[in-house]
Amino acid sequence: MIKTTAKLIKKKELTKNVFSFHLECFEIANLAKAGQFINILVEGFTLRRPISICEITKNGLRIVFSVRGKGTKKMATWQEGKEIDILAPLGNGFSDSTEKDSILVVGGGLGVAPLLEVFKSNSKKIALLGFNKDEDVILKEDFKKYGKTIIYTQDGKNFEKGLVTKDLEKILEKENINKIKACGPEKMLDAIKSIANKRKIDCEISLEERMGCGFGACLCCQKILEKDNEKISFHVCKDGPVFVV
Ligand SMILES: Cc1cc2nc3c(=O)[nH]c(=O)nc-3n(C[C@H](O)[C@H](O)[C@H](O)COP(=O)(O)OP(=O)(O)OC[C@H]3O[C@@H](n4cnc5c(N)ncnc54)[C@H](O)[C@@H]3O)c2cc1C
Ligand code: FES
């Protein structure tokens, strides 16, 4: 983990109140892994804001975030050229895959962001991305650039209608998938976990929890996970955010 300054070199509003930032920070680009996150200092706030790494570029990182509260609202006002104080890379990311693996990435809402780098760096893969409404869809072209991508929305006007898990079992069967990597709302992750467990497919999920320090010192991000009928306590920031389930 490094405390450093990253320069905001490209800012774009992807949909209403969802922003993409390209950050220039060479040393983090060399260290970071898909699924890890960065902790951002916002002026006027003591606690940093954790945001996932969406893409690792040759000169830095890309993050995608939505405005939820006061900190992210302030971040949305930052302009290109801004020097941002970050701690990075943090947490454990997704595990590496081999050429033989056939990967399914499943993302819901903003949870699609940390999956882009995983999708990029695997060869045999399919992405299932789910959103509430058609206008919430983000990163469609970015995923499509790297492989087969199916998008689900509740509206279903321009995309498949329904939940992102709708065709999951069918696709697992047809495409001979042996690894799932997922991020999104808890209900979606629960559904994926139970299908993966039933079919004995390796499954990694990325969790979100309210955080303080971001590196294991304050213990405020504790979460209980059930594995093999046993309840185990974890800290999302240092043991995760990616967990094998
Ligand atoms: C590992 C991880 C990765 C994340 N990646 C992304 C991402 O890629 N894109 C994105 O839009 N959001 C992401 N989030 C959620 C993001 O951190 C919160 O939306 C953000 O911290 C809210 O800050 P705020 O000041 O706007 O809200 P406020 O509610 O005002 O925040 C108050 C405090 O609570 C903390 N907090 C509030 N909500 C969350 C939350 N959901 N998770 C952690 N801390 C929270 C804040 O950091 C702050 O310390 C991630 C969270 C975690 C834990
Ligand atoms: S956020 Fe401090 S221990 Fe996890």
Q: Find the CATH superfamily of the largest domain.
A: Nucleotide-binding domain of ferredoxin-NADP reductase (FNR) module
Strand neighbour order, sheet with most strands: 4-3-7-1-2-6-5
Instruction: Tell me the name of the CATH class of the largest domain.
Output: Alpha Beta
- The amount of helix comes to 10-25%
Rg, nearest Å: 17 Å
Count up the domains: 2
CATH topology of the largest domain: Rossmann fold
Termini, distance in Å? 26 Å
Are any ligands bound, and if so which? flavin-adenine dinucleotide, FE2/S2 (inorganic) cluster
Principal-axes geometry comes out as globular
Estimated share of beta-strand residues: 35-45%
Low-confidence stretches: none
Tally of individual helices: 7
> Which architecture of the largest domain per CATH?
3-Layer(aba) Sandwich
- How many strand segments? 16
Written as H for each helix and E for each strand, in order along the chain, the element string is EEHEEEEHEEHEHEEHEHEEEHE
Average pLDDT confidence is 95
Judged by helices, strands and strand pairing, the structural class is alpha/beta
Q: What can be said about the biggest beta sheet?
A: 7 strands, antiparallel
Overview of the molecule:
It is built from seven helices and 16 strands. The protein is α/β, with parallel strands linked by helices and 245 residues long. The chain has two domains: 2-90, Translation factors (Elongation Factor Tu (Ef-tu), domain 3); 94-206, Nucleotide-binding domain of ferredoxin-NADP reductase (FNR) module (Rossmann fold, 3-Layer(aba) Sandwich). Strands 4-3-7-1-2-6-5 form a seven-stranded antiparallel β-sheet. A seven-stranded mixed β-sheet has the order 11-10-9-8-12-13-16, with helices on both faces. The protein has a two-stranded antiparallel sheet with strand order 14-15. Helix 3 links the parallel strand 8 and strand 9. The longest helix has 14 residues, at 186-199. It is globular and about 50 Å long. The model has no long low-confidence stretch (mean pLDDT 95). Flavin-adenine dinucleotide (FAD) binds at residues 37, 47, 49-52, 64-66, 68-72, 110, 113, 208-211, 241.
